[in-house]
């Protein structure tokens, strides 16, 4: 994983809320987490099943956190 700040600036500068970001090398899901925080859709690919499962869990946890802040 890498610091969220690295991808945050790129997503902020090149996408708008509601748009979709594609990460072809998802790794641990940092890009997906930032997308969730910034109200962007996310599609990611990862060949390593363990990394995919980790990323999925991290992204889903962030999405639950974001939804709980709405209410």
Question: Could you walk me through the main structural features you see in this protein, from its secondary elements to its overall organization?
Answer:
The chain is mainly α and 71 residues long. The chain has three helices and two strands. Strands 1-2 form a two-stranded parallel sheet. β1 (20-23), α2 (30-37) and β2 (41-44) form a beta-alpha-beta unit. α2 (30-37) runs parallel beside α3 (49-70). It is globular and about 30 Å long. The protein starts with a helix and ends with a helix. 17% of the residues are buried.
Separation, N- and C-terminal Cα atoms: 30 Å
- Average pLDDT confidence is 92
What oligomeric state do the depicted chains represent?
A: single chain
Main sheet makeup = 2 strands, parallel
- Helix proportion range: 55-70%
Ranges with pLDDT <50 over ≥5 residues? none
Q: How large a portion of the residues is in β-strands, by DSSP E?
A: 5-15%
Count of strand segments: 2
Helical stretch tally: 3
Strands ordered across the widest β-sheet? 1-2
Which short descriptors sum up this protein?
71 residues; mainly alpha; two-stranded parallel ribbon; 3 helices; 2 strands; 58% helix
Helix and strand topology:
Layout (H helix, E strand, L loop, with lengths): L3 H11 L5 E4 L6 H8 L3 E4 L4 H22 L1
Parallel strand pairs: 1-2
At a glance:
This protein has 71 residues and is mainly alpha-helical. It has three helices and two strands; from the N terminus they run H-E-H-E-H.
């Amino acid at each position: 994983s890498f610091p969220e700040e690295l991808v945050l600036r790129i997503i902020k500068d090149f996408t708008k809320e509601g748009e979709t970001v594609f990460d072809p090398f998802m790794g641990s899901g940092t890009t997906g987490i930032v997308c969730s925080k910034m109200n962007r859709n996310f599609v990611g690919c990862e060949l390593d099943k363990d990394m995919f499962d980790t990323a999925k869990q991290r992204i889903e946890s962030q999405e639950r956190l974001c939804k709980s802040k709405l209410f």
